[in-house]
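ESCALATION

Customer reports they have been waiting on this structure for their group meeting. Please prioritize. Original submission:
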Amino acid sequence: MGRHVATGTFALTSLISANAVERLVPQASQNFTTCNNSGALGLSDFEMQRIGVAAAVSFLGGIIQIAMFVLHLGSATFLLTEPVISAMTTGAATHVVTSQVKYLLGMKMPYISGPLGFFYIYAYVFENIKSVQLEALLLSLLSIVVLVLVKELNEQFKRKIKVVLPVDLVLIIAASFACYCANMEYTYGLDVVGHIPDGIPSPRAPPMNILSEVVTEAFGVALVGYVASLALAQGSAKKFKYSVDDNQEFLAHGLSNVIPSFFFCIPSAAAMGRTAGLYSTGSKTQVACLISCILVLIVIYAIGPLLYWLPMCVLASIIVVGLKGMLIQFRDLKKYWNVDKIDWSIWVSTYIFTICFAANVGLLFGVVCTIAVVIVRFQRAKTLSLKNMKELENKVKTEVEGENLQLVKIISINNPLVFLNAKKFHADLMNAIQKDNANNQTPDDINKCEQNVLLNSTSNGTCNGETSQPYPNEKCSVILDCTGLTFFDYTGVSTLVQAYMDCKGQNVDFLLANCTASLKKAVQYCGHLESDKHIFFESVSAAVGAIHLNKNLSKFSDHSEV
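Update from on-call: job pushed to the front of the queue and completed.
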């Protein structure tokens, strides 16, 4: 599991499991056959029946994730493109906010779910707008303002202050104390959390007789929880420069769902708020998660019952503000529109399907759309661009007056650059550069090298075991010929920008030749390279000439200093 990812309750998976609970054990019903759990933790038999359904969803969802790990389905995560994940998580966050509306407004509302349930909820709210509880509404607004304001101040001054103010905890304590002192539950009729049992129940198998009835929700928990957790893990891995095993994430989250289900726990996934807290405290290993788990146990055994007086509207406000990171992903629409309008269309359609139906339906729709679009675009793409490698070699040697170009590598992209081949492109490019730095080779041996399916190297490959001495004092350069790059998507452009940053970090000049106007615009916008326009050249020969000119200027500068 990602080093900075904290596992816990997740709003999206909780909402999916709540659908199963309300469908099988609705609030108005008292008849449901399960194991006799009466008296556990001081809860009624009806409450234990509802908890048992959630535990069954967690158990089956974990089994599905472990099965996916065994089948190595983590290798298929390249189908989960950034626009699809962004749209799905944004739509699911919208569902969670909608589920909290009745608490924010203090309204009594029947449980509404199913297709288009999102719109039925708001229709009910507007039809019964007069039943809004003014005290709950004002307390919700005050809580949201305080949370947003303090969190923004924490973000602005996080470099100057050593300890970030835990505003969520402070608000919970303050609201519970105020509600207790003012007796708001009876004076103003505010809904409160109520009795919270302390301790952990004895391990017991979840009700197996209802597993067949919660298959749909279990698949939703398995897929949505995994995708959201993987996105968070990959984000932290990219930020802190380490890698994440996509397939191992299935096993980690599967066990995190199966084992706790025997203690009547609801489905879990990566907790966005706790993960953000790990970022801010500078944690580097899973030891920080272990410490937070110990603190959670202390709350369960000692502090939990004290939260009886916490107003539900305040708790709903904390949940809504905690989803801010997902909700502001609407801003991604601008970059998708500027880079690839088809990705923009996929984002919008996936979001619409998610809010109209469910997160798992939106995810499936987004993946299917992405595959269909790539198939259509590949069918319409131009054939591979073939070059006369010997002619290009002679042309390069002539333009630099026959000087040895051992430290210049020319690479041709012969395929579209999209999410299907972006990872392989980056790996092949980095391997080619690293091999070139380790064993430089004369251009005379280029025509003996095997041509890669994705990359065609026209110089400096390592082949036939023939190498020459490297030039440690010379700066290496890479020229990427984009003639064959017929189309691209956001993932492909991001990979291209990442390759540029990686080369820059290794002190390797990275130049792009024969770029289309749309590719230049996308690379500059995606990588914020408006000031680095010198990396684009009209042709390979122009790029080689620029390298030769810079080399001569460098030598002239060195002689001047002497």
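Sent to customer with the following note: The chain has two domains: 7-29+36-378, 382-393+405-436+474-555.
Escalation resolved.
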